[in-house]
Structure formats: structure tokens, C-alpha cells
Amino acid sequence: MATQTNPSEPDVDLGFEDTPPKSNVIFIVGVLSALTLVMLVPLFDSYYQAVTEAELQDKVYSAGTEQVTELKAEHRRQLAEAPITIEAAKDEVAGRGRANGPVRAVANDGVGAPIDDAVAALGALQGWNGFPTAEGEARLAAAEAALRERVAREEAAIEAARLAAAAAAEGEAAE
Fold it and tell me: How many CA atoms lie within 13 A of 105 on its CB side?
């Protein structure tokens, strides 16, 4: 170790490595590591395959036939206790055809629909849990009043248009 002559100047020899890197050793270690990895991959794959096959053999292939028999008997019992047989259900569905097809949207508000149906459709405003709250009841009453007012305006507009058309038709007939 070099001795420092002046304490204010750093020691130049301290903390610096000036030997050339050992690139041959690094290259050889890298190549050996890669070869080791390439050789271990098939070993790990074969181990995984052996363990997987052993588990399948224990849990799937060697399952007792008595378990399968019990499961099938339970299914047959459930089918026998059903309120309707499978064949009868097939016949019922096939016999209906498209008469009872998919659910279609129905206009439940406006001039063409009964107002009570539209008010009944507002029931979801009470809450999805089915328990009406004071806030839900107030919102429902406000929505019902707004709906009835809108329907009354629409009916008045239709009546006004009908009267205007009738007056126009009378005016044309008078001329």
C-alpha cells in the first residue's frame, strides 16, 4: 500500500484496478453455463412428465368403478324423481314452436299503453332489494306524476292535431 505524503491529495493507487479483464475465462464460463442449461431442459421436462403421469394415474385412471357407479346411480335417481320426463319436456318444447318465442320489448308508457302498466314498470325505482324506502317512495311518486303529466300532454297534442286536421278538412270542404 502506498503511503500518502500530502494528506490533502488523494492516493492515486488506492481503489483503482488496472489489470486487464479475463475475457477468456468469462467466455468459457458463459458457454459452459449455456450448455448446462440446454442439457438440463430435457431432464426437467422428463421429470415434469413423469410426475404428471403419476398424478393422472393415481387420480384419474385408477378411479374406482364403484365411485363412477354411485355417481351414475345418483343421476338416474334424480332423473327418475323429476316432475317431468326428458321425453315429455322435449315434446312440450317441440310442440310450442315459435309461438312462445323470445321475450320482446313491449311499450309500457306513452299514449298507446295503459298508464297503470307504465306505473308498474316504475317499481324498480323503489330499490332492487324489494324493500321500499322513504326516498324510493318519493322518487316513485314523482316519476308517476311526471309520467301521467307527459301522457296527458301527448294526448292533448294528439287531440289538438286531430281538431286542426278536422278544421282544415272543413275549411277545404266549405271552399
Answer: 2
CB 100 within 8 A of CB 110: no
Is residue 109 within 8 A of residue 147, CB to CB? The reply is yes
Give per-residue pLDDT as tens, 94-108: 776 655 555 556 665
Alpha helices in the chain (DSSP H): 23-56, 65-80, 86-96, 115-121, 134-174
**Whole-structure pTM value:** 0.33
CA atoms in the 13 A half-sphere facing the CB of 136 = 12
**The C-alpha cell of 57 is what?**
394415474
Dump pLDDT digits (tens) for 11-34.
666 666 778 888 899 999 999 999
CA distances from 17 to 21, 31, 141, 163 (A): 10, 26, 87, 106
